Amino acid sequence: MLLRSLFVILLVISYTAIANTDHTDGKSDKNQVTKLLILGDSLSAGYGLKQEQAWPQLLQNAYNQEKSPITLINASISGETSGGVLQRLPALLDEHSPNWVLVEIGGNDGLRGYPVKLLKKNLRQIIDKSLAANANVILMEVAITPNLGKRYATLFQNAYKQVANEKSVPTIPFFIESVVTKPELMLPDGIHPNAKAQPLLVEIMKQHFADLILNN
User: Fold this and answer.
1) Would you call 25 a catalytic residue per the annotation?
2) Does residue 22 carry a catalytic annotation?
3) Would you call 42 a catalytic residue per the annotation?
């Protein structure tokens, strides 16, 4: 009888412990670190700048000061294309297990005159692989200069909204639109934002991430 009573007590204690653990985990989910993987090109890699000057590191510094639960994983490479990202993506997803993926890619596809159909195909696969890894996706719309013709530039830019609509993922505007027309904020090449522009890009991206991640 004593053994039976002890067994029942142990069962109750075990069940209570499990219930409390589940409840605690449910609460801690809200405070878990959110890992955001940035898949970008030179605009996010900080071309022509020191790493600590580029907007991803500046934004991470701001998050750290605010004790915001976001960790940025900057996997951006200067000169990267959508095809390059697609090749690297499985390893990045396996290594980092991000909650969110920011896709800031395509500018080099446009500079090289790659077919828009290929860009769209690669973007679809990048989104599909990210979603399959249980990551939410933010697709940045990328604009290019009309060097290859206005029609190509228009088709190129429209590709992002089309793919986003197909895949039901949010888009954000091209983040350098507000600085690219100001020579004092650009490097001499007229393509890449300089160090003075980076804090402005931080504020732009911080607001987008607040709207899409922190406030949801």
Assistant:
1) no
2) no
3) yes
